[in-house]
Amino acid sequence: MINKITIIGAGVIGAATALTLQQRGHDVLLLDRERPCAGASFGNAGAIVNGSCVPTATPGILFDAIKMLSQSHSPLSIRPSYLPKILPWLMRFIWQSRTSAVNNNALNLHAISQHAVPSWRKLTQDTSLSKFFNGKGWLKVYQSDQAFEGTLSSRQLLDQVGTKYQCLNAAEIHDLEPHLAQSFKHGFFQDDSLNVNDPQLLVQGMVDLLVKRGGQYQQLDVDSIQERNGVVQLKGKSGELLSHKVVIATGAWSRGLAKQLGDDIPLESERGYHLMLPESSHSLISRPIVNGENDFVLSPMNKGIRMTSQVELAGLHAPPNYNRIRKLLPLAKQMLPQLETHEESVWLGHRPSLPDSLPVLGYSSKSKHVVYAFGHQHLGMTLAAISGDIIADLLSNKTPKVPIFPYRANRFGWHV
Ligand SMILES: Cc1cc2nc3c(=O)[nH]c(=O)nc-3n(C[C@H](O)[C@H](O)[C@H](O)COP(=O)(O)OP(=O)(O)OC[C@H]3O[C@@H](n4cnc5c(N)ncnc54)[C@H](O)[C@@H]3O)c2cc1C
User: Fold this and answer.
1) 110 lines ligand 1 (CB under 6 A)
2) Which residues contact 162 (CB under 8 A, 6 or more apart)?
3) Measured between alpha carbons, how far is 397 from 375 in angstroms, rounded to an integer?
4) Which of 1, 73, 77, 310 is the most buried (most CB within 10 A)?
5) Would you list the domain boundaries of the chain?
6) Contact between 140 and 108 (Cβ < 8 Å)
7) In the CATH scheme, what is the code of domain 2-407?
8) What contacts 361, CB < 8 A, 6 or more positions away?
9) What is the helix (H) or strand (E) element at residue 15, kind and residue range?
């Protein structure tokens, strides 16, 4: 039997793509090597930030990064043993921090992120999934004038692309979040953003809905992909299958599969951590709040507050260093004095990132039967529904609502 469309990877991107394709009338098979939502989608902060457009590489990032690496609570770390391996990616990343590249990347990020919230609403309307979403916005808070002034260039990028936000004073922050320490003088607020109160249950719910509506879910660790005469063959240790079209949505693990098809895509893991705080803390905050000075997020989840942070460049295989997130606990307590800082659990995840902070969305440059949907870096939760919409349009021979040239697989030549 030859399947019609097979999606590899049941993270938020693969699940949203599968569900959207099914809504357009396609027969789909969703695969994962583990249970659904075993990757980065399991433990993120759940923020869906409409119009988010600031790429990670911005002017001055090299100097900022050098400064950060010497700080005790640095949000960035690079394992020395991984430096030789990641150097080519880092060089491309630094190249993307030129003003012209940043402006371009911001425009292209905004082109998709402006559809983030409407696409999620469309995908989940009239389903039981809508219960996972809250609509209280996305708040960043700053204690010092200097730190807030440091966000000027990011705010200018948002102004340039037309993303709506408000700057708040201390009283306005307090009105929104009365349990926050009084020391926060400046706030940055996007009131049209959503947050998900349990990303794992949301993705599992999407897979359950897919199956309930007649789609299939199967466990297979795909280690080989080949296309011959218009049929794609997927092989893993536990079996093999054939499909007319395949979507690769394997997050940070996508590079190897794309390479087998002949696309060498500079995809890296930006490792990040979370630490769960007790359920009793849950009602202390109403929305995800970013500590602007120390780059961590406190996000309200069904089972407590989730603290997320860190960009660790150490590849997919190095063991976790949970002290990177644990050492932020005193800062979280300063931010939210009533917080109970008992650690319920810790977790490490892999953000799939390209140097320009843009995902890869579109056909493989080598095959008209394989489509890529990966590389959503810090914004996979945000961009999942619109990415699914774009891929479903492509596979339905419709023009996607966003022109996809900027997200093509072969945009990185040897010189960029
Ligand atoms: C700490 C942290 C906080 C974050 N916070 C946010 C946030 O607030 N908002 C936001 O928008 N984004 C956030 N992100 C980013 C977001 O989580 C990711 O961009 C997103 O989850 C990526 O989804 P994905 O489906 O591409 O990958 P994943 O969720 O990693 O899924 C990939 C899936 O593919 C499967 N797989 C891999 N290889 C194979 C194979 N060979 N065969 C079969 N299956 C395979 C894996 O098992 C996995 O289930 C955060 C990330 C981290 C780490």
Assistant:
1) no
2) 51, 110, 114
3) 23
4) 310
5) 2-407
6) no
7) 3.50.50.60
8) 112, 372, 373, 387, 390, 391, 404, 407
9) helix 12-23
Q: Is the CB of 359 under 6 A from ligand 1?
A: no
Distance, CA of 91 to CA of 267 (rounded, Å): 13
Give the span between the Cα atoms of 374 and 251, in whole angstroms: 5
| Structure tokens given for 310 | 């860190």
pTM: 0.98
Q: Are 374 and 267 in contact (CB under 8 A)?
A: yes
Tokens of 270: 């930006």
Dist. CA 332–CA 309, nearest whole Å: 11
Three-state DSSP string of 263-304: CCCCCEEEEEEEEECCHHHHHHCCCCEEECCCCEEEEEECCE
Which whole-number Å values give the CA distances from 231 to 9, 45, 192, 228, 369, in the listed order? 19, 38, 43, 5, 7
Q: Is 199 in the pocket of ligand 1 (CB under 6 A)?
A: no
The enclosing H or E element of 161 equals helix 152-161
Residue 395's φ and ψ, nearest 5 degrees, are: -80, -10
The pLDDT value recorded for residue 416 is 52
Residue 69, SS3? helix
Q: What is the pLDDT of residue 22?
A: 98
Atom of ligand 1 nearest to the CA of 270: 53
pLDDT < 50: residue spans in the chain: none
